[in-house]
Amino acid sequence: MSNFTGESLRRKYLDFFKARGHKEIPSASLVPENDATTLFTGSGMQPLVPYLLGKEHPLGKRLTNSQKAFRSQDIEDVGDNRHTTFFEMLGNWSLGDYFKKEQLRWFFQFLVDEVGLDPKRIYVSVFAGDKRFNLAKDDASVKIWQELFAERKVEARVVNNPEEEGLAGGRIFFYPAKKNWWSRAGEPEKMPEGEPGGPDSEVFYDFGPKWRLHERSPWKDQPCHINCDCGRFLEIGNSVFMQYLKTEEGFKPLPKKNVDFGGGLERILAASQDQPDIFLTDLLKPIVDRVVELSGKPYEAKHQVPMRVIADHVRASVMLMADGVMPGNKEREYFVRRLLRRAIRFAHQLGIDQPFLDQLVPVVVKIYQGHYTDLADKVELIQAGVAEEEKKFRKALATGLKKLDSLKVIDAQAAFKLYESYGFPFELTAEIAAEKGFKLDKDEFEKLKKLHAQRSRTASAGKFKGGLADKDQTTVKFHTATHLLHAALRQVLGEKARQRGSHITRERLRFDFEFDRALTLDEIKQIEALVNEWIKADLPVHRQVLPKDEALKSGAIAFFGEKYPEMVSVYTIGKTTDDYVSKEFCGGPHVKHTGEIGGPLKIKKEKSSGAGVRRIYMGYA
Predict the structure, then answer these.
(1) What is the pTM assigned to this prediction?
(2) Residue 618 to residues 188, 277, 297, 478, 505: CA-CA distances in angstroms?
């Protein structure tokens, strides 16, 4: 077993690839900037799509980082020994530079020589090809892996159909596109035109046969293979060979072949300690320990699932709120609300019936503040937001209990209505129903819930289209307008009006900023007047790529995140780069002159978005 911590393993990885010519870039925000295709940053490659498609990166062709990621689709899976909603993705990229040979060798070397994993406990998967789209079998990766294992004196038999054959004494396994093809949209048939993707090769760590029967395994009677989810094997890294673009005619090679690697920090850390439960690594255990202390229950048996859910959901909420997403009813905000309310629901199973979530916030911050240095400054803001949300939900729980007491019949339909209207937990409804002599059908409840989820997904299916960040001209105009709005807020309200986040559609822009009170009508009019005055002046918009320190000295502001690469992109709005109304770190895109925005623009709504955060909606008058 290694003595790595999450902090030391992250640094070991970044230094390993920096020694091989990679430039370290910071983690992007969990809120995608200039990307209307998705609500959250769910992978390391997401902020780099323009560069994977051919745009030159200011730091060159080799990059590495540890990217914060959040996957809302995994909320219901949390509770086993491996699933989380928030995680860090260790990443390295080749933008048209090295390819399969270097990538697979380097990652294997890192795992064996740097992390100390036994090569006999490493297994890999490769792409089996897809005749429907004329996509070839990845024999090249197989050959490379065979050479790498041979160097470590490990036999590397190839298995062609592991889902039927099982392990079959194999080391290298072919899987179809549903397992070994990667794009943001999923397998090839799900990809929209304009989306990049490619075959991948995943690496798995073997915890041994005893973990085949872990607590949530429905696969004990099926053939065991590395992708069977029985608990024995854990995927720890995925090398994506981003070499295709989906077009109207089918898949076409990108001008340059790229490598997009992602490895779960928590998972590699667990493998390094031969510890299959990631909640017992130092990236999650301190939170679990605090829940143990608050509940008076041990981390074992029936208590593990609720403790894992609480630890994951609070950690994810803290990281999302640090990036400007406060609990609420719409889009991103709804997921933070859902996370916190699910945590409270599972706390009920542990007998924690008093407000407690805000006590976990400093625990999360202490784990991550060494790398994400802005967290320490946001503890009080996040604690206040969490406490306010818990207060609201516990009030909703009280209302739900009253509603439940008034029901003459308690069935699955009633349980679902309580869940949907008040966020009332099924388990709690079932407990009370049993006391009144009713037995609830959980399968029926799950069917109703699944039907509701399907309808919700259908309603939001248009959220992912086009592949690229939305470059519609109206959204580009509104993006430039957010810079003007930020400048106007700071001029009218003072420099304490700091940006917390933004979201842009074709209809309006939404802008969140730190401020401790509602704006007056006079302040709103002043802000509108300044924005429209600058638009009417048709000021030029300049872009410069500068060393970070030079950009900061020039007056550029950088409130979207706490870490930036050595070279940064700066957009200045003004007559010259020295005579300006706005100068900010930003990735673009923008109009060339403010007159292109048109107008006039009007503030449609100004409201609270959580403790100490205000939200403005602005659009055309």
Answers:
(1) 0.75
(2) 38, 47, 49, 9, 11
